[in-house]
Automatic annotation (TrEMBL):
Source species of the chain: Mesomycoplasma bovoculi M165/69
Alphabetical list of InterPro entries matching this protein: YbaB-like_sf, YbaB/EbfC
Gene3D superfamilies from the UniProt entry: Nucleoid-associated protein YbaB-like domain (3.30.1310.10)
Role description: Binds to DNA and alters its conformation. May be involved in regulation of gene expression, nucleoid organization and DNA protection.
Name by which UniProt lists this protein: Nucleoid-associated protein MYB_02455
Assembly and oligomerization: Homodimer.
Family: Belongs to the YbaB/EbfC family.
Cell compartment(s), UniProt: Cytoplasm, Nucleoid
GO molecular function: DNA binding
Coiled coil ranges: 3-30
Pfam family, one: YbaB_DNA_bd
A Gene Ontology cellular-component term: cytoplasm
Length: 93
């Protein structure tokens, strides 16, 4: 394989990765935990957050805060994994 073929192959791979990244940025991810629902885009932007009315208790705001924190952290972790999966695995030489 000559250097030009390698360069073309690398450029093709780079375009494919960019396309996958762009698609991931627009993709919606849905998460739910104990009445807190979250829709987050692949660019980590929160599109929608809904909270079950039964969770709103002025005497226990910390529980609601914990649920919101948990669902956001789960979303960020999952989307980060998706971003990592786009990149091809580097093989050691």
């Amino acid at each position: 394989m000559n250097i030009q073929n390698l360069m073309r192959q690398a450029q093709k791979m780079q375009k494919e990765i960019e396309s996958k990244k762009n698609n991931l940025q627009k993709q919606e991810f849905n998460f739910e935990h104990q009445g807190v629902s979250l829709t987050m885009l692949g660019n980590y932007q929160i599109k929608k957050l809904t909270i079950d009315k039964n969770l709103v208790d002025p005497e226990d705001v910390e529980l609601l805060e914990d649920f919101i924190t948990l669902v956001i952290n789960n979303a960020v972790e999952k989307i980060s994994e998706e971003h990592e999966n786009i990149m091809p695995k580097q093989e050691s030489l």
